[in-house]
Amino acid sequence: MASVLKRDSVFENIPSIKAKTLRINLNPDIYGTFAEIGAGQETARHFFRSGGASGTIAKAMSAYDKDFSDAIYGIEKDGRYVTQARLKTMLSHEMQLMEERISRENHPDRLFFSYANTVATIDFSKRYKGHGWIGIRYQLDPKQKELDEIILHIRFKQNEARLQQETLGILGVNLIYGAFYKYDKPKKMLKYLYDHIDKDTLEIDMVNFSGPNFKEVDNRLMSLQLIKNDMTDAVMFGPDGNNLLPAAVLYKKNILALRGSFRPVTKVNLDMFEKSYDIFIRDKGVDQENTMVIFEITLSNLKASGEIDEQDFMDRAELLCSLGHSVMISKFQEYYKLVEYFNNYTKNRIGLTMGVNNLVDIFDEKYYRHLSGGILEAFGKLFFKDLQVYLYPMKNPDTGQIMTSNNVKVHPRMKELYKFFKYNGKVMDIIDYEPDVMDIFSRDVLKKLMNNEDGWEDMLPEGLSEIIKEKNLFTRKTIEVEANES
């Protein structure tokens, strides 16, 4: 049956929403349930309207009352309803009922699915635009025991609940259609989710694929597609390679972020992290158990050699994940935008670990000419409340002098501004650094590695050189050495 579905998915023209629902309804094997909470039964409505829904819809429901919802799906540990955990509970419960109530003997070719969403639309004060979780659990073969699953998190941008409901309904149709007819092209499937939807109306900031038909899908690469396709501004993934929802993992957390190319991650990167982390958690306002460490790479860094090399991205991710770190990919070229993003989710302490050269760039006016308030506007956002910069020293290649916050040279016009932040404790030097590693730069390691020169192994944290050799990372001829690196 899977081959039939794949063979049937040859149309590249964008079909209408009615055409998509009708195609599914007229397929005699696709059969499932719709469970929608928070924004009406918008997805099921499209299937009912197109005709032939009796062959597709086993059940459509909306357990709006919390008591009814809890009676059906149970109570989540955190007591919340618009969460990934709630969505997964809904998908699991509805699929289990499907398998219990529909006889395989009578319907040997049926492809079961459960579609669900749990969302919160815009509130009356219009302070919170709304967000939600959407997913489908399904079969592509009637004999398939382990099910496939696609889960999304979305953020609404429209200012009317009615418009958000309509957008949600269209997105649901696109997801179900893509799951059955575009499953073999997951990258394209992500783009097709916006069929008949303006990108300005909806943000998709997390997606995870799982199941036997998605074994070859790396969710980190799917995260990258969300950024490349302008679906969101930032994505995160954990050490296990699965995508994380930034809003969930950053919520009310203390955040320590280290920006770099990590191409590859070196001993100096690790020293910067470890020393700044030690300072960060000793702060009396920081609870170590409520702290999130992020290794961040900007999209502009990934594009430093032209177009994004996806394998190069995966090589960087492979090493960072092997060290047990969470990674963020963002579109925030300027630091103040990154801090502004963090401030959307937490009011706790934020720390930025950076080298002297990065600090000098922050005080360069050319990066803020597009702002009406110039550098002062940017700094008002950057050094907002509890932000702290942990400065890693740099050796001047010409004089051998160690550059710190005390002798760093910024533009003469910026000196007084720099002194203000310096003497107000916003910049703190890392003083217990390892002098033996401070001359290590990723670009030099990469050059040695690609030219088969000796000595690059000693520049990396323990165990990483073995991973690079075993998996043949960073050795393709298509990769060019970056001219500059943070």
UniProtKB/TrEMBL annotation:
SUPFAM superfamilies of this UniProt entry?
Nucleotidylyl transferase (SSF52374)
Q: Which UniProt keywords apply?
A: Nucleotidyltransferase, Transferase
- One MF annotation (Gene Ontology) recorded for this entry: nucleotidyltransferase activity
User: Is the keyword Nucleotidyltransferase in the record?
Assistant: yes
Entry keyword Transferase = yes
Question: What name appears for this protein in its UniProt entry?
Answer: Nicotinate-nucleotide adenylyltransferase
